[in-house]
Amino acid sequence: MGANLPWPIVGPLFMKKERRMKYYIGIDLGTSSVKSLLMQEDGTVVGTAQEGYDIVKHKQQYAEQDMDLLCQAAFHTVRSLTKRYPLEAGKVKGIGYSGQMHGLVMTDGEGQLVRDAIIWADQRSAGAVRDIYKVIPEAEYNKVTRNALSTGFLASSLVWVKEQEPAVYERIRKVMLPKDYLRFQMCGEMGTDMSDASSTVIFDTGKGQWAWEFIDRLGLERSFFVPCHEACETAGEVTAGCAALTGLEKGIQVVYGGGDSLMQAVGNNMVSPGVLSSNIGTASQLACVLDEPLCDSLYRTNTFCHVRNGHWMLMGANLSGGVALKWLMSQILHMDSYDEMNELAGKSPAGSQGLLFLPYLSGERTPHNDPDAKGIYMGLTLKHSREDLIRSTMEGVVFGLKNSLEIFQAMGVGYEKILASGGGARGRLFRQIQADMFGREIYTSLITEQACVGAAIAAAAGTGGYASLEEACGAIVRFSSEVTEPDAESQKIYAERFEVYKELYPRNKSLFMKG
């Protein structure tokens, strides 16, 4: 073969040049922990690190967190990765973020925190919600934001601070969401993305900008609200201070990232319509991508900007998901293992022998939007065991998601398949309950840390590793061949029990107010 060439074959001239592999970091700043993930550009996960923290509850309805402690935890996880994988960490080209949504972080003129963050699970601002609607009629407000106000949203929490903590309010110069504060600590630039900004519910979700007229009418300062960008846009670069704390190289590009539900969707390749996501994490959500900002006429669901311009996410949000099982495990049954709980629950039949659980342990959003709602075990008898308690808790969480599915179907939202994600995708029983209640096959992704991977994908697409978010998702996200089929007999049982479940809240609503 070489005889036909005008020069001899010499090793170095004909050796294929080795392509330098790129790496990306995705950071998911959650409610109970932060996870960081180091990923190769082909989607191979090199390593992960996680560190937990607590919610501060000064009163029953309060939910706060010290954002500096959360940032320290995030730095520790990144430092763990750079120590364990120094060669790969030296080739990191971009960092992306996923974060708990809705919460209010407040800083002063020096960028220092003025108080602990008021996060999504907080229930104190019901009065502030009523006050906002006195200034701006509810129908007008919801039409622009595409959402109903709830406690725990940045808008209602900020008005609460203005009314109840005026000295704190006077010190505020900027407000942002939790993952935005972490990014600010890493790159020194303030800003947010449209997915998280729309979750503040003081945002014009159709136009993709802050609802400036509402901000003015509520007497809030326009200067508080940081600039809004796309999730994959570059926000800045890792500072020298951040590099010293994390082991990262100074100058690595940082993208804006997005809210955790949206970034989890990216990690499941949900960047275009067609797939319904059933996510059970600390909370739980049913979600799908839209190419127009549709919303439920009664605003029982949420419509947020997706991470791609011209796309939105329709979401039914339930405040209890895995947290209900954690509560049952640690505070009621005093068990140590979710695996043991799953094994026991599998011994109880579909329908938990008539035991029904209403999972409103922290109030509820979809479909009732009631911070005073409470949890119920209904139908308890002497025959019931802890196996039934565990299974009915799991079933109650999925019944909550089925409420959202009914709303989606009434809106005419179509979908080709249902994808389970979060903790609800990992256990066989949870997947089977979803298949039986929804009456559809349940698919899963091979990616276990979807939010972290979604954040890393955003970093790859935003820093030139891929030409687009779609290309990145197509190259990285893979799905399991295992499909969970619905069981016909269980479907009948759940259809009957769901009709009873739907009566639990309205029949007890007046009693919740007295609780």
Give the integer mean of the pLDDT values: 93
Strand content is 15-25%
If helices are DSSP runs of H or I spanning 4 or more residues, what is the number of helices? 20
Largest sheet: 7 strands, mixed
Anisotropy-based shape = globular
Oligomerization status of the protein chains: single chain
Q: What is the helix content?
A: 25-40%
Instruction: Count every beta strand, where a strand is a DSSP E run of 2 or more residues.
Output: 23
Low-confidence stretches: 1-18
Cα-atom Rg, whole angstroms? Answer: 24 Å
* Classification by helices and strands: alpha/beta
Distance N to C terminus? 87 Å
Structural summary, described in words:
This protein is α/β, with parallel strands linked by helices. It contains 20 helices and 23 strands. Strands 1, 2, 3, 5, 13, 14 and 15 form a 7-stranded mixed beta sheet that branches. A 6-stranded mixed beta sheet has the order 18-19-17-16-22-23, with helices on both faces. The protein has a two-stranded antiparallel ribbon with strand order 4-7. Helix 4 (126-135) crosses helix 6 (154-164). Residues 1-18 have low confidence and may be disordered.
